[in-house]
Amino acid sequence: MTEREDKQSISIQINGRQLDALPGQSVLEVCRDNGVDIPTLCHDPRLSPYGACRLCIVEVDGLRGLPASCTTRATDGMVVRTDTETVERARKTIVELLLSDHKIECLTCEGSGECKLQDLAYRHNISTTPYEGEKHHVGEIIQDVLIDRDLEKCIACGRCVRICAEVQGRFVYDTTGRGFDALPQTPFANPLSESNCEFCGQCVSTCPTGALSDGMRRFGGRTWETLSTETTCGYCGVGCTLTVDTHEGRVVGVRAPVGRGVNDGNLCPKGRYGWGFTHSPERLTTPLVRRNGELVAVSWDEALTEAAAGLSGIRTQHGPEAIGGLASAKCVNEENYLFQKLMRAVIGTHNIDHCARLCHASTVAGLAASFGSGAMTNSIPDLREADVILVIGSNTAEAHPIIGVELKKAARAGTRIIVVDPRRVRLADHAERYLPITPGTNTAFINAVMSTILAEGLADEDFIARRTEGFEELRAILEDYDIEAAADICGIPAKDIRDVARIFGQADSASIIYSMGVTQHTSGTDQVRAIANLAMLTGNIGRPGTGVNPLRGQNNVQGACDLACLPNCLPGYQPLSDQGTLDRFCDFWETEELLPTEPGLTLVEMMTAAAAGDLKAMYIMGENPVIADPDQAHVIEALEALDFLVVQDIFMTETASFADVILPAATFLEKEGTFTNTERRIQRVRKAVEPPGEARPDLDIIIALSAALGSELDYENARDVMDEMVEVTPQYSGITYARLEAEGGLQWPCPDTDHPGTPILHAESFTRGLGQFAPVDYIPAPEQTSADRPLIMTTGRHLWNFHTNTMTGHSPGLAELNDHGYVEMHSADAERLGICDKDTVRVTSAHGIVEVEARVGHESSPRRGVVFMPFHFADAPANRLTGSALDPQAKIPGLKVTAVNVELIG
Amino acid sequence: MADCACQGNAKDDLDLTMLSVVFEAHANDPGALIPILQETQAILGYLPESALREIARQRDIPLSEVYGVASFYTQFHQEPRGETIVKICHGTACHVAGAPEITRAITEELGVGVGETSEDMRFTVEGVACIGCCGLAPVVVIGDQTHGAVDGASARKLAKQLTRKATR
């Protein structure tokens, strides 16, 4: 768009009106921009023009026949007519021909009301087609998991084929057969589940008729009966805009609006099909209290009184430091702000943390030290501006699928993508280079890359001189860096390291994307700093298409951090060690007791303190540490040792089963508020359905619990909390609900209500002034392979599951796709151990044993010597095997490197 | 990708190593899908699922594309075919001159419908569009021999000869 705006506009006459257009625009785009209606069937703005359906035909002076406006470029002085009798007659004939071979069953068709063919028949007054002839008989509706296909309603527009290829990059369908028999099909007409399908439903989203539809939506309500609510997705940190369709108080389907939000109409399987958990019969619908060892249903008053009494009792007896709270990256900003306010201002402790400790604590610590701000520096749409993108330790296409879509699109447009990961992650298929690195060795790799860049004169000396400090100490490490030794450590040939250095170093704009493959190490903070070093060394900061871009895992982990659900800072990352700042907050919150200037306990430290008997009570909101945290046995021991545990959740999670009081909460579809996505964009969350039974939004629960603890909080709704929040969080100062409604999302820092938000950080100067180089070098992970445990286990996510599977595992359809744990192995390792695909194996680490299915030779295979386990599944919990050794700076556990043994059972 | 054989999706059990000569011949030719399909079919007699999967894997192109192309051209066959192919021309000239009668005669004699292959895999009967020798209409092509000016009776004779040859 920016490129177009730079160019001079042209003038084109449409139906007698003189209109401005941009060079490169199609006639169709100009018409649609100016409200001139042109019907289409094969067009989707997300796809390249196709010119197949011929409905967008127009008359153009000087051109013979009726050209398709979607494939005709607007030129200066062009004269176009869109509504002549010739055009209308031709369109009518096309629709009549399409209807001659269409299964017309609008009375029960799920497409009815949304169907473009139905609209066109109405528009041209076609009740029966004058053309009789052969009709397709291709059999019954094909019902795969989640997606129904009725090929007798297919008009062969090719949109499903093209969106799967052009946007999703999966190539599930192609047009098969020829002539009359040509239809979009999978190879050998196999089920979608055997055809490379990701079940993202992008094909359903683009189908103009009822040929493709959501299976779960069947007979769930006609489109004109449903209500639609626009909100923000509650799964990963991408923050996609959703349109949630509801009928009689229940969700019937999820769509995405084309042209709005970070996702522009695209969704992943979790976003589109992962809503069923909201209506699961297993939801918690009433407060529960443990009486004589049994959990019994009680009223809210009783539960809150009991929760307050339990917490106050411990506070009186052991002091506020004996209480810890876990906030939730799944909850809205307003709830997280109130949660930490309750812990700090009402209970009087900084013992607050959340799962960010387990994912990006090292980013927050590392980037704050290097740049002054621990967040993604650039934006999602900005990625397409990059010449080179280094993706390291991020399974983007599965963990952040819509950013994955952006990367695949960028790759097709010529961006050179380099993927560095121990597994051949899905994005590797779209990358120019894929380097299978040994887990935990990123610093050696980055240093070797930097050393080559420096030696070959590719460093941006001007940027280093103007914008940074501390480079000389790093230079000393890099100047005689042993690249061959680094190559041995990383398991990547030195030549490949040098190639990557040249590709990255020579690029005009190069961006780095990373995620948990970098952060979840005992040297995670150092690894983050190495990445920051690389960006600064090459001057790739503060410009479009550059930056250091950590992808945040949870929908609102950015917001939960921003609003200080962390033990070491106050909202907006303000230091609590500063007495003046702390006093201001204490005044503002009207706290009775003064808070300490010492930070509280982190998540893993809380578990250790609980096991040791120092921490007596916990209040856990929407987190499931039994599955999510390292060293499961230790976590269970800690929870059992607590005197009092309050858990607030939507399901009876593995953690909730240890609670004394359980408070039933609402899902993101049942509440109001805001999420902050990975690119710092604050977006509205809107209620689509009511919570079940007596379940309540977390905001209401925190307010009620605060009142029960003797501190009345005066908020009517989430908007009131936001109004208070922005007063004390400088980055959020300019955010108001009115602006979010009017402008969509806003990216912090947004210092005042006239500020448009900040897509790119550190443009003129770093948040901390000068960028700070850190002389970091490779430190081996504490877990090393041995004869007893010869393999390295690494952990991660799958596309179809999220976190501890609480939401995805309770969503029908989605839950069936990947319903149990497994361990992925390289085929050579498997062969050596006599293990075949689907065999049951025993995985043993120093911390535990898990029996699990082996997967050999599937997509995303790990490199030799490495095995991979997803951490979603309670039946085979990867975190029973991981240890809780911590990064000394960020206190993040080293989840990505665990020495294990794998053996065949039986 | 899938080195552990336990996952192979194909239902047939063919030795695909004999295709290596095809892949080698076209190693530096990115647009060679159609020749590769033709040569594969020449070796195997048809294009089984496992061969299409192998082509997709070897050439690093989507299986859907390989399948789409293979299903588009009538020259490609995804089912095993008979040793002898009987093609009955249905071009305009042949149709007018009696192709339907010839079709009836041949399918009755061979006990094999159009587009089908006999159970003993000896012959496959196909209806084809114009063969390009309308002067000889109506035309039947058996193997690589073209028979012109065929009528019902001579068609039956041709078919009988074929079955006799088959039983011998």
What tags apply to this protein structure?
heterodimer; A: alpha/beta; 7-stranded mixed sheet; 6-stranded mixed β-barrel; 29% helix; disordered N terminus; B: alpha+beta; 4-stranded mixed sheet; 11% strand; elongated
- The share of residues in extended strands of chain B comes to 5-15%
Oligomer: heterodimer
Number of H- or I-type helical stretches of chain A: 30
Global morphology of chain B: elongated
Can you offer a commentary on this structure?
The complex is a heterodimer of chains A (906) and B (168). Chain A has 906 residues and is an alpha/beta fold. Helix content of chain A is 29%, strand content 17%. Chain A contains 30 helices and 37 strands. Chain A has a seven-stranded mixed sheet with strand order 14-13-27-26-25-15-16, sandwiched between helices. In chain A, strands 32-36-33-35-34-37 form a six-stranded mixed beta barrel. Chain A has a five-stranded parallel sheet with strand order 19-18-17-21-22, with helices on both faces. In chain A, a hairpin with a 6-residue loop joins strand 7 and strand 8 (183-185). Chain A is globular. Residues 1-5 of chain A have low confidence and may be disordered. With 168 residues, chain B is of the alpha+beta class. Helix content of chain B is 43%, strand content 11%. Chain B has seven helices and four strands, in the order ααααβααβββα. Chain B has a four-stranded mixed sheet, with helices on one face. The longest helix of chain B has 16 residues, at 152-167. Chain B is elongated and about 55 Å long. Chain B starts with 19 loop residues before the first helix and ends with a helix.
List the topology elements.
The complex is a heterodimer of chains A (906) and B (168).
Chain A: H1 2-6, E1 10-14, E2 17-21, H2 27-33, E3 59-60, E4 79-81, H3 85-100, H4 116-123, E5 142-143, E6 147-149, H5 159-167, E7 174-176, E8 183-185, H6 202-206, E9 212-214, E10 227-232, E11 241-247, E12 250-255, H7 269-273, E13 288-291, E14 294-297, H8 300-318, E15 323-326, H9 333-347, E16 352-353, H10 356-359, H11 361-370, E17 388-392, H12 396-399, H13 401-412, E18 416-420, E19 433-435, H14 442-455, H15 461-467, E20 468-469, H16 471-479, H17 483-490, H18 494-506, E21 510-514, H19 516-519, H20 524-537, E22 547-550, H21 557-562, E23 569-570, E24 574-575, H22 579-589, H23 603-611, E25 617-621, H24 625-628, H25 632-641, E26 644-649, E27 661-664, E28 673-676, E29 681-685, H26 698-708, H27 718-728, H28 737-743, E30 746-747, E31 771-772, E32 791-796, H29 814-817, E33 822-825, H30 827-832, E34 840-844, E35 849-856, E36 866-870, E37 898-904
Parallel strand pairs in A: 1-4, 15-16, 15-25, 17-18, 17-21, 18-19, 20-31, 21-22, 25-26, 26-27, 32-36, 33-35
Antiparallel strand pairs in A: 1-2, 3-4, 5-6, 6-9, 7-8, 10-11, 11-12, 13-14, 13-27, 23-24, 28-29, 29-30, 32-37, 33-36, 34-35, 34-37
Chain B: H1 20-25, H2 33-44, H3 49-59, H4 63-72, E1 84-89, H5 92-96, H6 99-110, E2 123-128, E3 140-142, E4 145-147, H7 152-167
Parallel strand pairs in B: 1-2
Antiparallel strand pairs in B: 1-3, 3-4
Helix pairs in contact in B: 2-3, 3-4, 6-7
